[in-house]
């Protein structure tokens, strides 16, 4: 066989009219015989582009005129590229043959004419325009950054430390293995292994790293400014003759990385119940209560991309910062629910629910065009809620009997296709792909939820049953968490054994709730959805408290993110004098307090900042960029919702507190605060806490051993941030956030989905952009009051039926002389109630009887409001309330609080929707001279037994025991 390099010695390229090395390899290793000597289009050179990627795009000024990428290639390249030391003289030929530039919106990557138009217009242009640096084979990092070799870092040819590569990505691309979480790593097996193969489907190790620059001059498709493109390493599709591979559609070529992802999905479907159809969702006409259809074409197949864009006349990039969308496919099913607190009287609950995808897409659209247009978006984690989630297509009805059974995790998690893996990820992917279609690049880092395995109920509780489950999690959870114990200093899976000493008593029957010993595992979930706790539980059903695993954080679940979005765990990219750095969450979290103590610690990133992250940050900080923005999911400083922003404080640099460093990182704290203090990092943007905060931090460096921080906090959505602010914490962009400027509403001052607009020229968040005009994205005031009442146990409203002194406390012996209403615990309250209606149950006719009372305009004494009330038959009303089980009240609001301000003039409540009434259960308590009617402590969630009995004839409800008793064998 002819070695083309012998003929190429004179010309510097493989001889065009002889059998090329690629064809020789193909003939020797497969049963495809090249039909003609000019057969470079048939060459199989397996390679993967590490950078750019969907979550780490290449964004540069249009004056740059060079496209930069990192490529890893199989061993065959040593011969074909003519590698000699650091030189690869023939690499340009194969790059010109296989690499393509495609307009992103048209980049289907399903075919390529490799014999026709190549990357460059001519071989001479290709040789001149392609610059290659061979970094060496995979093994270990070269000492001092000099020499050949690489392990898990990307370092440029001029010595710039650019990124840490995620270990799972190295395992996939270099070692050909993936993790299932049960038995360590396993080989990535080629799909369709039972079908007869025409081509070699082996995934070869990609051990050789190259840095490449492509000069614009001579490109077949020169990039245009402000237009998104993608790179693609195109090869023959080895499954093109497998009938079932593409549903009858013809795919002659694709990227080799497309094959790896194809094989990855096939193996995930077999091993981890992945959703069977890996295609994007059509988000063009997105509605919160309609599950979007998929685009089941090859153009719609979920696959990796390598986008780049050149911005015109932009000295610095304006950035849209979004965090914590918590996109959950389950919300589409819940939004369909037509259950109502007062059947036939109050409005359905489902349409009130906030949808994380809808809210986040609304913010994407704002950042895409109009006055809030930005050059790029940076997303800082918690993109999804869970790796496994309900397939909304399983839910076809709206009534409780059609919905409740689907949310029973114990009964359905192990049913094939019911709670598949990947749906939340696929929604995120569809959102990101849509942004790129509109020329908007998106940078991404992970949060802790990207690792969360199985869902939990909509108001999860810790009780004897869930504690038992937590102490004895699924085999997969236990294996992973216990294996991590020594290496990552995390709480082992058995850590919950000591939490509930009654766990040995066995399971609790959900149908017997209420049980006052039950503790909330995460109180804020209904509020995130913009629902009261009762509303959320009613549409979800009697399995609302389920917590199926005590250890839901599975590091191997990060594989989806690092396979599809980017293989880079930590990265730093440059744009002129601007630097954007992103750091991942890490492989562990301190979980117990945040998940199981209601007002405890938000999970901390206890592996951050790792030595690798500190090394990257140190290298970038040494370059002293004009502007250096750091993006993470974990916070550096962040007050929890109970600490008002009106209070500044001083504490030690290494203090880990549930009040001031909520959801923070553990390692390398001194280094970060020092770099920020020295302006080596000019802005740190994070999320996680669901509370917008602009923090001015003054570092006292006089005492090196006992450094302290003086912190002052503002809400830039309502207050002017301090000019020296460098720490910015974002609220969740997919649900309701929380706030407390002066302690108002006990920390439940709910805020709409929002993001920061960061002006590139000054490193600051110039504006908080909200999505309140979208359906259900405006926080409901009734939800805030509900949380004060049931979570904070504050009495908000009480009605006193004046009966006068008497010897007998029985209601029938009293006459009501008057009714007063008292409102307490609302900060800076002004009369805000315009109507009150009581509802008592008529068991004979099975309907609610309504009793509307008349109230005056109200008066105020400090923060207490008093109203005089009247009713035509107050004695009869009281008797009805005392006889009814249950009894409800509907409180309607005016807009009296909309203009209430804090001491500094900031509006406290103007973001609220005051039009939705507050409906909740009440009970009368007989006192010495009055009967007080106020909230029923047992009315936090529905009385399931009563619901079944009251509405049995309607056919809309189902026996709660049918729902709760369904359990799989090992749940």
Q: Summary?
A:
20% of the residues lie in helices and 21% in strands. By secondary structure, the protein is of the alpha+beta class.
Architecture blueprint of SSEs:
Elements: H1 4-11, H2 21-29, E1 47-51, E2 58-61, E3 66-73, H3 77-80, H4 91-98, E4 99-103, H5 123-129, E5 130-137, E6 153-155, E7 161-165, H6 167-175, E8 177-179, E9 185-187, E10 208-215, E11 229-236, E12 253-255, H7 256-271, E13 307-311, E14 319-322, H8 330-334, H9 356-368, E15 376-380, H10 400-403, H11 409-412, H12 423-437, E16 442-445, E17 461-462, H13 464-471, H14 475-488, E18 519-520, H15 525-528, H16 533-540, H17 559-564, E19 568-575, E20 578-582, H18 592-596, H19 611-621, E21 627-631, E22 649-652, H20 669-677, E23 683-686, E24 693-700, E25 708-714, E26 727-729, E27 754-759, E28 764-770, H21 781-790, E29 797-802, E30 818-823, E31 833-842, E32 847-855, E33 859-861, E34 864-870, H22 874-883, E35 887-893, E36 918-926, E37 930-935, H23 944-950, H24 960-964
Parallel strand pairs: 2-13, 14-15, 15-16, 20-21, 21-23, 23-26
Antiparallel strand pairs: 1-3, 3-10, 4-11, 5-10, 6-7, 7-19, 8-9, 11-12, 11-13, 14-27, 17-18, 19-20, 22-25, 24-25, 24-26, 27-28, 29-30, 29-37, 30-34, 31-32, 31-35, 32-34, 33-34, 35-36, 36-37
Helix pairs in contact: 9-12
GO molecular function, one term: hydrolase activity
Organism: Formivibrio citricus
Domain Calcineurin-like phosphoesterase: 319-466
């Amino acid at each position: 066989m002819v070695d083309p390099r012998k003929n190429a010695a004179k010309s510097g390229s493989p001889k065009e009219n002889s059998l090329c090395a690629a064809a020789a390899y193909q003939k020797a290793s497969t049963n495809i015989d090249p039909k003609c000597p000019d057969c470079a289009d048939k060459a199989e050179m397996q390679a993967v582009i590490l950078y750019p990627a969907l979550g780490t795009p290449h964004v540069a000024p249009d004056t740059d005129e060079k496209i930069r990428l990192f490529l890893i290639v199989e061993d065959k390249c040593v011969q074909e590229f003519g590698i000699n030391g650091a030189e690869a003289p023939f690499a340009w030929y194969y790059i010109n043959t296989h690499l393509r530039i495609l307009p992103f919106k048209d980049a289907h990557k399903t075919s390529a004419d490799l014999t026709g138009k190549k990357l460059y217009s001519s071989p001479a242009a290709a040789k001149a325009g392609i610059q290659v640096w061979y970094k060496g084979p995979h093994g270990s990092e070269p000492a001092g950054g000099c020499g050949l070799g690489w392990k898990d870092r990307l370092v440029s040819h001029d010595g710039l430390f650019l990124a840490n590569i995620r270990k799972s990505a190295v395992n996939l691309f270099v070692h050909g293995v993936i993790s299932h979480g049960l038995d360590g790593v396993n080989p990535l097996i080629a799909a369709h292994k039972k079908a007869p193969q025409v081509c070699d489907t082996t995934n070869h190790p990609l051990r050789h790293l190259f840095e490449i620059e492509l000069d614009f001059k001579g490109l077949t498709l020169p990039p245009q400014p402000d237009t998104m493109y993608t790179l693609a390493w195109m090869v023959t599709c080895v499954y093109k003759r497998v009938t079932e591979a593409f549903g009858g559609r013809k795919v002659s070529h694709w990227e080799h990385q497309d094959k790896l992802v194809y094989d990855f999905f096939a193996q995930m479907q077999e091993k981890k119940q992945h959703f069977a159809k890996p295609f994007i969702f059509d988000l063009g006409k997105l509605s919160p209560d309609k599950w979007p259809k998929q685009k089941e074409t090859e153009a719609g197949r979920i696959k990796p991309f390598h986008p780049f864009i050149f911005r015109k006349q932009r000295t610095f990039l304006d950035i849209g910062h979004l965090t914590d969308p918590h996109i959950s496919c389950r919300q589409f099913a819940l939004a369909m629910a037509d259950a109502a607190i007062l059947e036939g009287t109050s409005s359905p609950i489902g349409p009130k629910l906030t949808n994380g995808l809808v809210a986040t897409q609304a913010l994407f659209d704002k950042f895409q065009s109009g006055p809030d247009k930005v050059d790029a978006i940076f997303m800082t984690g918690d993109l999804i809620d869970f790796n496994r989630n309900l397939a909304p297509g399983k839910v076809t009805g709206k009534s409780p009997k059609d919905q409740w059974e689907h949310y029973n995790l114990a009964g359905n998690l192990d049913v094939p296709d019911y709670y598949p893996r990947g749906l939340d990820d696929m929604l995120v992917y569809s959102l990101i792909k849509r942004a790129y279609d509109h020329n908007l690049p998106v940078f991404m880092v992970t949060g802790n939820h990207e690792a969360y395995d199985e869902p939990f109920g909509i108001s999860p509780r810790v009780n004897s049953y869930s504690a038992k489950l937590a102490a004895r999690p699924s085999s997969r959870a236990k294996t992973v968490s216990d294996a991590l114990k020594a290496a990552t200093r995390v709480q082992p899976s058995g850590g919950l054994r000591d939490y509930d000493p009654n766990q040995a008593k066995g399971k609790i029957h959900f149908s017997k709730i209420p049980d006052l010993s039950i503790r909330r595992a995460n109180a804020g979930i209904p509020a995130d959805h913009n629902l009261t706790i009762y509303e959320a539980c009613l549409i979800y059903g009697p399995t609302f408290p389920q917590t199926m695993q005590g250890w839901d954080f599975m590091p191997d679940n990060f594989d989806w993110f690092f396979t599809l979005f980017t293989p880079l765990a930590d990265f730093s990219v440059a744009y002129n004098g601007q630097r954007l750095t992103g750091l991942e969450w890490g492989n562990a979290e301190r979980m117990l307090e945040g998940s199981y103590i209601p007002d405890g610690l938000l999970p901390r990133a206890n592996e951050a900042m790792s030595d690798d992250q500190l090394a990257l940050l140190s290298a970038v900080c040494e370059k002293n960029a004009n502007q250096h923005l750091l993006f993470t999911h974990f916070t550096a400083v962040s007050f929890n919702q109970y600490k008002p922003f009106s209070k500044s404080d001083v504490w030690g640099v290494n203090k880990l507190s549930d009040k001031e460093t909520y959801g923070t990182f553990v390692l390398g704290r001194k280094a970060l605060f020092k770099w920020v203090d020295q302006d080596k990092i000019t802005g740190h943007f994070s999320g996680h806490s669901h509370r917008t905060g602009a923090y001015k931090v003054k570092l006292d460096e006089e005492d090196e051993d006992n450094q302290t921080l003086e912190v002052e906090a503002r809400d830039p959505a309502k207050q002017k941030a301090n000019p020296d602010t460098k720490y910015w914490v974002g609220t969740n962009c997919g649900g309701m956030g929380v706030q407390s400027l002066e302690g108002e509403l006990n920390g439940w001052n709910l805020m709409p989905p929002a993001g920061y607009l960061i002006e590139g020229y000054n490193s600051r968040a110039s504006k908080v952009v909200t999505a309140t005009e979208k359906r259900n994205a405006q926080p409901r005031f009734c939800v805030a009051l509900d949380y004060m009442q049931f979570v904070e146990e504050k009495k908000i409203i009480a009605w006193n039926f004046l009966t006068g002194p008497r010897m007998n406390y029985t209601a029938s012996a009293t006459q009501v002389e008057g009714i007063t209403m008292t409102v307490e615990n609302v900060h800076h309250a002004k009369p805000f109630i315009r109507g009150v209606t009581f509802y008592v149950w008529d068991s004979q006719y099975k309907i609610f009887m309504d009793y509307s009372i008349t109230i005056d305009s109200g008066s105020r004494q400090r923060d207490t409001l008093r109203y005089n009330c009247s009713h035509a038959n107050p004695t009869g009303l009281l008797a009805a309330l005392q006889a009814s089980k249950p009894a409800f009240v509907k409180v309607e609001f005016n807009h009296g609080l909309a203009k209430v301000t804090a001491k500094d003039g900031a509006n406290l409540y103007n973001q609220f929707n005051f039009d939705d009434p507050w409906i909740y259960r009440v009970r009368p308590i007989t006192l010495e001279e009055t009967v007080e009617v106020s909230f029923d402590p047992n009315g936090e969630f529905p009385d399931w037994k009563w619901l079944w009995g009251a509405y049995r004839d309607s056919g809309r409800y189902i026996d709660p025991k049918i729902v709760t008793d369904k359990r799989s064998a090992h749940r």
